[in-house]
Amino acid sequence: RMARSTIGRMAWQCMRGARMMSTSPKAPKRFAGVIKLKPEMYHQYTRLHDHTWDEVMKRMYDSNMRNFVVYYHKETSLMFHHWEYVGTDLKSDMDKVAGDPIVRKWWTYCEPCQEPFKWDGPPPSKGGDGGPGGEWWASMEEVNHCGAWPIAYSSEYPDPDFVPKNPEGKISTSTDTEGLEHN
């Protein structure tokens, strides 16, 4: 009992310290979503994401998106994404992302790989909104978060610890999309 209490107090002090050291006046807002990956499109999706286009990364960064991560569960073909928002005007920043012509071009290559759970009409790259209740990536509810938030975000890209996943070792850029399907 004593050890558990001491560990709990130490964890609380670490989190309190992280909050006090943070350069941000408040915690980032976290977002998560889920979508199905068409198994036959795994190669294309990893080719796109082993090196996300520089222009897409810049737009995300300029729109206050940080720590964007996508996970894949092979047995169910589900992808889960998580990211953090550090800005003050989410709607304006997300409108800038959605209105960016290079991001929309990027989406035309990602969308054929994905199966949203509930979506009617044209995909987002073509201006579609999914109809009532439609979401391309289904939003997820945060039920737990252990720990503090980052005190700084790296601006180094690509992440030096990321291991590419494309089985063919291929990547794409906004000017090199040969062999990729798109809308």
UniProtKB/TrEMBL annotation:
Q: Which Pfam families match?
A: rhaM
Q: Matching Gene3D superfamilies, A to Z?
A: 3.30.70.100
Q: Sorted alphabetically, which InterPro entries does this protein's record hold?
A: Dimeric_a/b-barrel, Rham/fucose_mutarotase
Supply the PANTHER family for this chain.
Answer: L-RHAMNOSE MUTAROTASE (PTHR34389)
Highest taxon, organism lineage: Eukaryota
Q: What is this protein called?
A: L-rhamnose mutarotase
Gene Ontology MF terms in the entry: racemase and epimerase activity, acting on carbohydrates and derivatives
In its UniProt entry, the species of origin is given as Amorphochlora amoebiformis
* Annotated segments matching region Disordered: 160-183
